[in-house]
């Protein structure tokens, strides 16, 4: 069965200041693990519905919604449908700098690049902003002569629109530095969890990596991530279980053990909590879809319309 996977547009132009990829997902659950990065990133949803978590905030999104991820904001996405489509747009603000210092650079660009101006994460029903994003995507995909200039112009317009209507906060430099230090500690924690989530993970071990007490670690993790450390680990395990249920012949006990669950009954309860169906039912649905696809291909070949 051919799956819809995350696919990338041509990113070979290393000098391009905007990078765009189109993502399509058919599997529910966690589709983008917790992470953060230096650039401003936009999620432009064109089909389906999902949940985006940014730091401690939770946003329910659907078609034509735009989510802005400011630099160094911890974020991830959960898919809530069978056919999710979105564009991921990453913008390197440093390309806007000019060799000659001017009011635009000193008043706006420096503050943006230093993460002192934070935009609102959720943008709904703003026709001007969406039109601007649509034009950026179209120019990037079509790549007609002068598309780089067109994109640069639209990015300036987009920033102006966001500055006028969608500023969340102006940060002091010391506040930004404190936030950066906290995130650096939690980067090591997240990396450890991502490498070891199929094993038994002790909260005391995680708090030791962050160099804080276990109680404070639990409170801070939930404040930053929006869910508890235990729930985050469970979500990673269930996501792995979904892959094994669909793509392997392992039985449910083997899958539970390979995903960090010592008790298959507990695994089933947690799985149903996150996926809204039991592991056995998901396998049955997956096998049924595989059979339908096989039957369809067989018929197409008989009619001589099957194309490789």
UniProtKB/TrEMBL annotation:
GO molecular function ontology, one term from the record: sequence-specific DNA binding
UniProt key word Zinc-finger: no
Record InterPro entries: AraC-bd, Homeodomain-like_sf, HTH-like, HTH_AraC, HTH_AraC-typ_CS, RmlC-like_jellyroll, Tscrpt_reg_AraC-type_HTH
This protein's UniProt keywords: DNA-binding, Transcription, Transcription regulation
Residue stretches making up the HTH araC/xylS-type domain: 187-285
Pfam families according to UniProt: AraC_binding (PF02311), HTH_18 (PF12833)
Domain of life: Bacteria
PANTHER family with a match to the protein in the record: ARAC-FAMILY TRANSCRIPTIONAL REGULATOR, HTH-TYPE TRANSCRIPTIONAL ACTIVATOR RHAS
Name of the protein in its database record: HTH araC/xylS-type domain-containing protein
